[in-house]
Amino acid sequence: MRTSPLGRWLALALLLILGTAAFSAGAQPQMKPLGRSIADTGSAYYRFRHFDVDSQDHQRHYRVWVAIPRQAAPSGGYPIVYAMDGNSALHNLNEPLLERLSKGQPPVIVAVGYQTDLPFDVTARAYDYTPPVEADHGADPWNPDRRSGGSDTFRTLLHDTIQPRAEQELAINAHQRSLWGHSYGGLFVLDTLFSAPSSYAHYYAASPSLGWSQGKGLNREERLGKALAEPASLTLFHGGDEVARHRREGRTLGNVTKGSELRAQQSPTAAHDLAQRLKQIQGMDTDYRSYPALSHGPMFGASLTDTLLNIAGLPMSDSASLKAPSDHSH
C-alpha cells in the first residue's frame, strides 16, 4: 500500500519523537508502571500489609507497605527501617534478598510510598523530602514547576501518623529504628538527622542531593553542634561515577534535566567531605561507603540492599566489586 506524502511526514515525525525519547532515557529515571511486587506474589520469609494516608492538606496521597518477618521477633523486638520512595523500594525487594535477611535478624521494612503505579511521585517527593529554603520561595530550584520545602510537615506525618500505624500490634525494638532514603530521600534522611536526631538510632543516606538549592539543604547541619544528646549512626553511600556521569551527559545530551545539570556542578568529594565533618561530632558514628563503578540510579538498589543487610547484622556487599548495570541507567 502506498503512503501519501503527509503520511510519510507524520511517520518521520513520530520516529524523531520516539528517537529523542529513547536518546534522553539515560538522562532521567524510567517512569513506567511498576506492575506486581513481591507484596502481591508473596514470600516464604515475609508477610505484607499496606494502608493509605493523606497529607493534612489532602494534596499528597501515600501508600505504605509493611513487610513483617515470618520468624518470631527477638526478645527485644524487631529492628525496623523506614524506606523513602516506597514504591521503588518495594520493587527492589525479592525472594533471594528476603531469604538472606532471614539468616540474620531480619527487620520489619516499612516502604513509605505514594498512591501511584509509577516508581516515583516526583511532584510529591520534591515537596516532602526537601527542607524549607527562604530564598527559593517554595519552588524546587531543580524544577521550578514543583513545590519544595515540606520536610518538616512530612516528618510530622511520618512520626505521628505513619509510624504508629506501621508498628501497630508488632513487637518493635524502639532503640533499633532506622531511616533510609536515596537522592531527595537521602537529603530528607540528613535533614531529619540535623533537625530531630533522636527520631532514629540509625540513618542511611544514599546519594543525597547535596547540591540541591546550591547546598542550602544542609543549612541545618549546624544544629547538631559538637555533641548529640543520644548516640546515633549515619551510613553515607555514594557512587563513584555520580558526578562524572552527569558531566558526560551534559556534554553529549542536549536535553538533560535541570537537576542533572546542577548535579554535574557538584564537587565529587562533597559526600566524603560531609562524612568527615560529621565524624567530628561526639556521639555520631559515621561510615562513608563508596561504590566506585556506580552512578546515581544504580545506587538506589545497591544502598537499599546493603542497608537491609546491615540492619539484619549481616555483611554488606563488597562495594568496590559492584559493576555498573549493562543498561547504563542512572
Structure description:
With 330 residues, the protein is an alpha/beta fold. It has one domain: Alpha/Beta hydrolase fold, catalytic domain (Rossmann fold, 3-Layer(aba) Sandwich). The strands form two sheets. An eight-stranded mixed beta sheet has the order 1-2-4-3-7-8-9-10, sandwiched between helices. Strands 5-6 form a two-stranded antiparallel sheet. Strand 1 and strand 2 form a beta hairpin. The protein is globular. It starts with a helix and ends in a 19-residue tail after the last helix. The N terminus is likely disordered.
Write the layout of secondary structure elements.
Layout: H1 5-23, H2 38-41, E1 46-54, E2 61-69, E3 78-83, H3 86-91, H4 95-102, E4 108-114, H5 122-128, E5 139-140, E6 143-147, H6 151-167, E7 172-182, H7 184-195, E8 202-206, E9 227-239, H8 242-252, H9 258-264, H10 270-278, E10 282-291, H11 298-311
Parallel strand pairs: 3-4, 3-7, 7-8, 8-9, 9-10
Antiparallel strand pairs: 1-2, 2-4, 5-6
Helix pairs in contact: 8-9
Give a short summary of the structure.
The chain has 11 helices and 10 strands.
Name the features:
disordered N terminus, eight-stranded mixed beta sheet, 10 strands, globular, Rossmann fold, 23% strand, alpha/beta, single chain, 35% helix, two-stranded antiparallel sheet, 330 residues, 11 helices
Helix/sheet category: alpha/beta
How would a textbook summarize the main sheet?
Answer: 8 strands, mixed
Helix content: 25-40%
Strand portion: 15-25%
